[in-house]
Amino acid sequence: MHVVTETSAELPTALAQLAAKDVGVIAVNGGDGTLHHTVTELMRSRPFERQPFVAPLRGGRTNVAALDFGAGRSPRRSVRALFDACRQGTLVARRVDRPMLRIEPAAGAAPLYGFFIGTGVVRRAIEYIHRVYPPGRARGVFGGGITAVSTLAQAAMGRRTEILVPDKHEFVIDGDAVEPAEYLLVIATSLNRFFLHIRPFWGRGPGPVRFTALEWDAAGLGRAGWRLATGRPGDATSRAPLRRDRGYLSRNADEVVVRHDCGFTIDGELFDCEGTVRIGASRDIPFLRG
């Protein structure tokens, strides 16, 4: 069976209908925002006696999570492959071991769930893409790629634009406080990579939250751009190593607390609230490759 939803407000009813039919696998035919709303609703209302498998399909403008999970290009073929796996009893071969981010956007607020969060510059960049590029896939990887490259280039030249404005942040990473500073980039994810194979994190350790922060006046940003995009920090002999004393921070953590006043985005959905955001992880929903 399938249920078509036009807005996130329709998700509770849609999921309740699927739960009433004892559905065990939900294929989400949408983008990252649709997936964020779906897993959040599954965790909040828990309409299923046991959480179903969730298989993200590449059916939206941006499909960062689905790509990271290994979903095929065609949603139709992915659904057919899932049906075949169900009939043949081989779903376990499509299992993807990936946690979600559990995000408390403010003290006492209900948690949100997703796979990527970014503050300040990242939020403004997505808002800019929505405003400048026409509706459709131009707002996806195409618009995101052009905006990311041009923003990084302007940052390397020390320019300020409507997107590039320093934002004050304070962090507490697994109980360790980081001295407040102005930051250019602040992101956290539970994924292994983003679109265009960008992988801007190089922290060590088993923590499920990959957290990266780049100070506004980070040294050698022009030369470090490639290292930042590929998560290769370099060593003592490198020309532009990504070191903490040069303004680059990347950690794998169990929990990150971020204090900010610049809004944030979760999987492309925009949030204007400011204050303290608590970022952890959850493995309460099992995932499949679409």
Which helices and strands appear, and what pairs or packs with what?
Blueprint lengths: L10 H10 L4 E4 L3 H14 L7 E4 L7 H6 L5 H14 L6 E2 L3 E5 L7 E3 L1 E4 L1 H12 L8 H16 L10 E7 L2 E14 L19 E7 L5 H10 L17 E6 L2 E5 L3 E3 L2 E3 L3 E8 L4 E2 L2
Parallel strand pairs: 1-2
Antiparallel strand pairs: 3-15, 4-5, 4-14, 6-8, 6-12, 7-8, 7-11, 8-9, 9-10, 11-14, 12-13
Helix pairs in contact: 6-7
How would you characterize this protein structure?
The model has no long low-confidence stretch (mean pLDDT 89). With 290 residues, the protein is of the alpha+beta class. Strand 4 (100-104) and strand 5 (112-114) form a beta hairpin. The strands form three sheets. Strands 4, 5, 6, 7, 8, 9, 10, 11, 12, 13 and 14 form an eleven-stranded antiparallel sheet that branches. It contains seven helices and 15 strands. Helix 6 (141-156) runs antiparallel to helix 7 (221-230). It is globular, with a radius of gyration of 19 Å. The longest helix has 16 residues, at 141-156. 28% of the residues lie in helices and 27% in strands. It has helices at residues 11-20, 32-45, 64-69, 75-88, 121-132, 141-156, 221-230, and strands at 25-28, 53-56, 95-96, 100-104, 112-114, 116-119, 167-173, 176-189, 209-215, 248-253, 256-260, 264-266, 269-271, 275-282, 287-288. The chain has two domains: 8-99, no CATH class; 102-284, Sandwich (Tumour Suppressor Smad4).
